[in-house]
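Dear colleagues,

As part of the handover before I leave the project, I'm documenting each prediction I ran so the next person doesn't have to rerun anything. This entry is a single chain, and its sequence is reproduced below.
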Amino acid sequence: MQQIIGTIKNKAGFIIDMDGVIYHGNKLLPGVNEFVSWMENSGKKFLFLTNSSERTPRELHEKLKRLGIEVGEDHFYTSALATAGFLASQKPDGSAYIIGDAGLIHALYSSGYTTNNVNPDYVVVGDTHSYSFDKIELAVNLVLKGARLIGTNPDVSGPVEKGITPSTKALIAPIEIASGKKAYFVGKPNPLMMRIALKKLGTSREDTIVIGDRMDTDVRCGLESEIDTLLVLSGITSKDEIDKFPYRPKYVLNGVVDLV
């Protein structure tokens, strides 16, 4: 075990998921404060890479600050930012009908996109609590008229203090079923996210590790990007569930607490 921990801690770059790794809802997980302090004091390069699209990097910075961790906004990258970057590269200065919260709306505005509920280029769905039948009905009809359907991430659910909460893939499913159109998901396990993360860190694949709590997104994304993976059991995946997948993480620990 100590040899494994030593190998992990020798990495130069750390790509770290947030929900289930750093916190559950508004509850900081054990060992996180010490782990972040160790990375900073050791001169490690690290990026919090989250499939959640609800919050902006500033809001994530403020949330960690409330939980007792002070790190700069440049240490955060979200599926909302990845989605905005992807759409801007596909169709610059386009328009979208957005079902999502501040993080997604701000990211799309910042990339030059405008909102449009009449004839948008895209219907974009992200994590949100402002979800209604009227929005789904409008989205379905916009997709049927030709708007392309985009999801910020393919997570079905995410961990919160009281259990789990539906995520983007669950929210977008009624639009897919009713319209007969499949969504394209930008977030993990799409390797786009990892390639952007590596560029931001400036580290090589061989000297970087992905830390996450999900086999279907974090571990798969790391594997498909040829980056070592550490699955922590502090979030959505239990030890018994690992064998249900046709691939395995490089390392498995109870949580980041094991690293400190």
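Residues 79-90 form the longest helix (12 residues). Residues 95 and 114 are 5 Å apart (CA to CA).

All the best with the project,
I.
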